[in-house]
Amino acid sequence: MIIFYLLCLLTIIKNGSIVSAYLEMNLPDSKYVFDRELYESVLDEELCVEQIQFIQANRTDLLIEFMDAGIRTPRGVLTGNFKDLGNFYQCLNINEEIPNSVVEGKYCLIDLPLNQTLPVLPELPDGWPEGWPEGWPEGWPEDWPELPWPGTNPRTLKLREKLSQSMKHYYQQIFMTRLIEGANENARSGDTAAFEALNFQLAVCIPKTCTTHGALNALFNTTGDTLINFEERFCRLPDDKAWVAGDYVAITIFSLIGLLVVLSTSYDVYLTHYQTEDPKSAKPFNKLYLAFSVITNTRRLVTYNPVPGAIESLDGIRSFAMMWVILGHTFSSLNASGLLANPLDSFVWMTSLKSIWIMAAPITVDTFFMISGLLLVYTTAGKVSSMKLVKNVHLFYLNRLLRMFPVLAATILLQVSIFGRIADGPFMEPEMGNVHRCRAFWWSTLLYIQNFLNPEHMCIPHTWYLAIDVQLHILSPLVLVFVLSGKRKLAWGALIAAMLAILTASTTYNFVNNFPASAFTFETFEDLQNYMFYYYVNTLTRASPFFVGLIIGYIMHLNRGKQVKLSVIIVTLLWCCAIVIMALAVYSPHPLIQPDWDNQVADNLINSFLRPVWAAAIGWMIFACQHGFGGPINWVLTLSPWKVLGRLSYAMYIVHYPLMFVVNSTAIAPIFFTVQFSLFRFLSDFMLTVIVATLITITIDAPFTIFIKHFMGGGPKKPRAPKVEEKVEIEEKQGEP
Q: So what's the pLDDT on residue 490?
C-alpha cells in the first residue's frame, strides 16, 4: 500500500503541463439513485396523446392542475434566479381515473436555453383577414423559415453596465460549476459562452406516460421537435428510488449495531441496579460487554479529568476551527445546491470586503493538518524509540487507519442508502450525485486514495482531507525515525530538511503550473479543474502545514514539563507576528477574487507559503497557551465546553457536509439569500451536526475504539490508573480533526 501511495504522490511536471496519476473513472448506471427501468416502463406514446386529448376536451380542471404544478417564468432573473421548480409534491400527487386509463403526474426538470432559434413570421401578405387567428390566409407558407430571433440571444440584452459586469462574472462561475457537475458538458467555455450557455431550469408536470417532448407536442398539436429547444434534465415518479445492494448492507449493519446497543445498554442497567460489585471488575470481559452501552459511552464523552502534560488548548482550537468549517460550508452549500433565489446578490456579497470571514474559511483545514503533525511527534517522542517504530511500523499504520475507519464507514453507509432515502424534493439533484458517487467509489474513500484515483467523483467530497492526512502519516516514519532517535541534532536536521524539501518541491510545482490562488476565480473549465484536482486536493501542495506541525510538536516535546522563560518583548513580538499573519491570511482572499485581479507571481507565492505560515502562527498560539503566555486567549480555549466538542470534532467533520445536502434537498422552492438567514441556517446545521455526531460517536466510534484497543493489545489487560488511561485516550483523540 505504501508503494502505491508513493507512486501516486509523484506528480510529473513536463513542458509546463501537468501529467498526473489521476485515472479517468466513469460512474456506472447500475448505481444510479432512481429506477430508470421504471421510467422507461411507464412510457406509452399513444396513451400519452390519448390522455392529453381527453384532458383538453373534457377535464379542464385536471389540465389546470398540471399547469399549476408545472412551468412558470422564473422571478428575479436580474438577481440570478434562472429556476422555477413548480410544485413537486402537487405534481406527484396527481392521480385521476379517466375512461380506459388512470392519469398520474410525473415531475420533470428541463433546461431551456436562453439562446434560441425560433421560427419567425414572414412579411404579412396583402389582404390579411381581420379575424386572425381564426383562419389562415390563402397562400400562407406551410414551412416557416428557421431564422434567429434576436430577442432570444442574451448577448443583446441592454443592462446597466455594473449589473451586466456582475452578471457576466457570476454566470461565468456558475457555468463552469455546472460543467463540473456534469451539466452542459458539450457547451464551450469562454468569455461570452457563460451568457450564451445560460439556461432556464423549469419544472414541467406531465402525465407519466409521456416524455417531455411528447407531452408538449400533444399539448400544442405539433409534430417532431417542439417549437422551443430544450433538454430534459431528469424526471421523477412516486416511489422511484431503486433498491440496490448498498441499501440492504446498510440496513443489516445498522440494525445489528442497534441490537448490540440495546443489549449492551440493558446489561449496563442490570449491572448498575442489580449488582453490588463494580460493573467493570465483575467479569474480565465486562468492558467489551459494555462497549455499546449508551450510558457508559455518554458518561465517558462528557467526563473529563485534567491530566498533566495534556495540551488543553487544542480542544478549543479544534472546536473553533470546526465551527468555521461548518460556517463556510453552510454558505457554500446553499450556492452549490442551487437553492438561492437571488444568487447574484450572494455573489456580490461574497466578493465584497464584508465576506472575508467566510471566504477565508478554507484556511482552517490547514489548522487540522498542523495539529495532526504536532501530535504525531508529541505523543510518540520519548515513548517510542526509532527501532521500535521500525519494527512495529505496520501497527503504526494500522492504528491510524482503524481509528478513522468506523465513523467514515458509517457515514459512507448513510450516504449510500439512508441519506438518499430521507431526502427528496425538486432540489434532489446534488444529493443524487452524492449517493451515486458513494455507491460507485466507496472503496477508494475507505482506502484513502480518492484524491488521486477519482478526484472528480469523490464519495463524501470533503474527505480529501482524510486521504492526505493518512498519506502523510504513511510517509511520516521517514522523518520520525530520526526524530525518535534521541539525538537532537539528528532530529532537527531531519525536520528542517523535510520542511525545506516539501517547500521547495511545492513552490517549484506551483510556479511551473501557475494555479490561481482561489477557487472563486477562473476563466475556463480546465483552469478550475486543474486547480481543484492538481492543487487543492493534492498531497504535495497541502503537506507543508503538517511538516510545520512536526516541528512545533518536537519543540513542545523538548519543553514538556519545563518552565519556559521568555522576555515580555519576545512574547509580544511573537504574538504580534502571529496576529498579523492570521489577519493577512484572512484578508488575502478578498483581492484574489476580484474580477480585475491579475498577478500570477502573487498567486504562486500565496499558494506556496500562506498555508505553512498560517500553521506556524497557530503553532505559536498552542505553544504560548501551553507555557503560560496565552493570557485571555488561553482562558477561552481551555473552557470546559470545548472538551466535548473536541471529542466530537472528527465525527462532526465527517457528517456535517452530507447532512447539509440532505437538508437542502428537502427544500421545495428557492430561498432568498441574506446574511442573517445564512447565519440562522448555520446554527441549525451546527446543532444537527452535533446531534448526529454524538449519536455516531456513542454508538459506533466509542465501541469500536474499545474493540480495536482490545484486539491490538492482545486481549484483556490489568486495569491501569484512570489518569494514565485518560491521558492516552486524550492524546489519541487530539490527533484527529
A: 94
